[in-house]
Structures are given as C-alpha cells and as structure tokens.
Amino acid sequence: MMESLESPVNSRSSYDHLFKLIIVGDSCVGKTSILQRFHGETFLPQSVPTIGIDFRIRTITYQNKIIKLQIWDTSGQEKYDSITTSYYRGALGVLLVYDITSSKSFDSIKTRWIKHINANTRKGVKIILIGNKCDVPTKRVVKSEIAEALAVNHGFKYFETSAKENINLETAFHEMAKDIYNEKCLREESKSVTLAETSGKKRKTNRCCQITINL
Hints:
This protein is of the alpha/beta class. The protein has helices at about 30-40, 80-85, 105-120, 145-155, 170-215; strands at about 5, 15-25, 55-60, 65-75, 95-100, 125-130, 155-160.
C-alpha cells in the first residue's frame, strides 16, 4: 500500500527513485486539474489551458522506498507539439487522458495520441488510459466498455477519474508508480543474475587457462 508524503524533496539523498511522468491528451479534458488535484491543490472550475508545458513534484512511498514523481502537464494544442514532444524524453510513464463527455477527445486517443507516444517515448514505457469527468455520468458519451477494450488491446491499464471530486486520482498515479518500480526491480535483478553468471564463467575460464600454463 502506498502512502503520500507531503514534504518537498530537495536533494538526491532524500529519495530512492525518481520517476518522470507526463500527462497527454486533447485540450480541456482536465489534464491540468488532474495534476493540480493530485498535488493537493484546490479544483478550479475555470482552468486556463496550459501553454506549452507545466509540472509538479510529489513524493510517495512504496515498499519502504521514497519515490519522487516529477509530473509534466503538456498542452493538448497541436501548435505546441514542437515544444511538448521534447519533454517526452526520459519519461517512464504516460497518463493518456480523454473526457468521457467528449467523443472527439476519445477519438484523438486512437488517431493522434497513441501514435504520438510511440514516436516520442522509449519502448516499454508504462501507459495508463484515463477517462476523466466521471462525476457527470448523465453527460457521458464514451462508454466504459469501449475505453476498456481499447486499453486491453494496447496493453494499458484503465481508470475513470474525476479531478473535480478527486476520484481515483491517487489510485491511478500510485498504480503507475508501482508498475514502474516493479519493472525496474525486475530489470536490475535480471542484470545482477547475468553479471553473476558472466563472472562465474570468467572465473572458470581463468582457472582452465592457469592450469594450461602450468602444464
């Protein structure tokens, strides 16, 4: 279980891992509100569209490790693409957001954003599909089943959230951090095993060579 740490992180020694995350999706789907609410800020009904890029930092704990999340909020406007794509570099996770009351924003996930992510992030980056504004179910136009099917088809996890009511935001970000952490541990464990096996083979080779020389 993850717990939030509200204190800021100012030095490398005060955290164990740094994970860079980015939030992408069309304008007005609630990306900025999601970031601000997860950061502990008040929901603003009339949020100003992000110009270019913005970010927040928050730390959480998982398995007794302090994880610093550096979360970048990108503009959904195409005219800022040349600016925002550079911030994909080094991202370990992507929150892909659409508005459940806007079919256009969901269509953009399929026609624009998935391609955008694949073209600008490393292979194997963790992606979570977010259907925001679940607090207004009467205005829903994108069915949950359709979004879930898209997520399953691409290997994404899927959550419906509400920045206004602060629904599922903690769960989504924590799940992302957990997946990145677990994969990182697996890679390091695999690397350690490979190094140990390689070292063992070298020792055996050296012993054989020593015997040959002595003979």
